[in-house]
Design goal:
Helix content: 55-70%
Radius of gyration: 15 Å
Order of helices and strands: HHHHHH
Distance between the termini: 28 Å
Length: 111
């Protein structure tokens, strides 16, 4: 979805930024949003309140509401998928090979 949105808005994104915060994502406020997600998942030393404040300061309160809603929706979808044992579709794995390799997700495959 991020790639399609980037195409629609003519952003030149670098998905490696998802795994490496030193790389600029290429979306206005993108790295601040990534920091917000990392803080919300506990994958960052930045506190959730500081991350929320950064989103509001850089992008405005409406962006914080949108980011929190997207985060909550993805968290819900992931829990449903994991809880029901839904595997990644082979077609999706083939289609997303480049992204899987870029983000180093091969290590998560079950053999």
């Amino acid at each position: 979805m991020l790639r399609e949105s980037a195409l629609a808005y003519d952003y030149n994104i670098d998905l490696r930024a998802i795994a490496d915060p030193s790389i600029h994502l290429g979306v206005p406020g993108g790295n601040t949003l990534l920091q917000f997600i990392d803080a919300m998942t506990g994958a960052s030393s930045v506190s959730p309140s500081d991350a929320r404040r950064a989103v509001v300061d850089e992008l405005g309160p409406e962006a914080l509401v949108d980011a929190a809603a997207v985060f909550g929706n993805f968290a819900m979808m992931n829990r449903i998928a994991e809880g029901t044992g839904i595997p990644l579709a082979k077609q999706a794995e083939i289609r997303e090979q480049d992204l899987i390799a870029t983000l180093g997700l091969d290590r998560l495959k079950k053999h």
